[in-house]
Hints:
By secondary structure, this protein is of the alpha/beta class. It contains 12 helices and 7 strands.
Amino acid sequence: MTTAAMLAARTGLRTGKRARTTCLVCQWRTFSTTGYQRLPADNKSTPAPGAAPDAKPKQTFAPAPVAATAPAPDSPLAHAPRSYGKKVKEFTPTPLSRPIGMSYPPAAGQNTGIDHRTLKQRRDDFVDYERHLAKREYLKNKVSRPYFRDWVNLSFHKGKTFLSPPRLFKADLSLYFPNLYGRTLASRQKIDTTPLLAGHASVVTIFSGMWAENQIKTFVSPEQNPALQQVLNESGGRAQLVQINVEEDWMKMLLIKLFSWSLEKKVGRENLGRYFLVRKGITDEIRESVGLLNSKVGYTYLVDHQCRIRWAGSGRAEGDEKEGLVKGVRRVLEEMKAEGITEGHVLKPVAAKPATGEGKK
């Protein structure tokens, strides 16, 4: 066999009469080593020295939710039972030793549970693999939580998570109450809680269900704590009671809205604008920060005019907790008066004490 015949046999070139009709380009592609694009050996190759840097890192427009898996070791409630983590067999609530709350001040528009991303931003987040991994971890932690853990934890002192502090937290060391978002009984339009709390001494209750509501009544109802009702009435509008009914199940929330007329009779017409129905926005970070560790328990907070948590209680009122709440409201009112916040919620500049009276303070 000649050399030409051997070459033709190895390369697959057509010979004979049909060779004259064969496309020369097709025969050339047989010898070509660049006919098909090769895959890169490594996508994370380092650029050459002096070359322009790569494009900006991918931006995540809405961070993936993070589920709490263990309490923070430095938390004043690190030993309290939770709906996740290791099951607690024995527990005795202790007074709060340090302030609780968020580390940053609240603002309207936070924790609304509304997705404001555009379609392009949602598409970019949808193809973000790292975000998918974070979301997968979040769902795994949520699904693995025992469903009846909160009910089981009610066996510890009727669900009481902590005892109220013996005195108010210092103003300069106190942490903040988060902004929540929901509709009130006065209007169908949803609003933020921060504008309502700012400039007032607010007793804020958070509950979900009848059991929790009966617990917070031991702190704030006129029948069981008439001294608190007297302080609220005598404050001239500077002190208020704000009730937040949290129901994350949309079917239960629908039933609450259908029978809201019964709530209006129970709350009173003058308090309709201070009764919130909240379904979204309360994350695990918020629950860990403010101590909402059991969804079946009611919690009571004293929030000052700068939205700082100065006092907190959980479950049913025990011992001198009701008296401590009343004293705390009076103390916050005194601080507001010293700062110039009088009736009408007007923040007046601190001036020198006048020699003669200048009217009503």
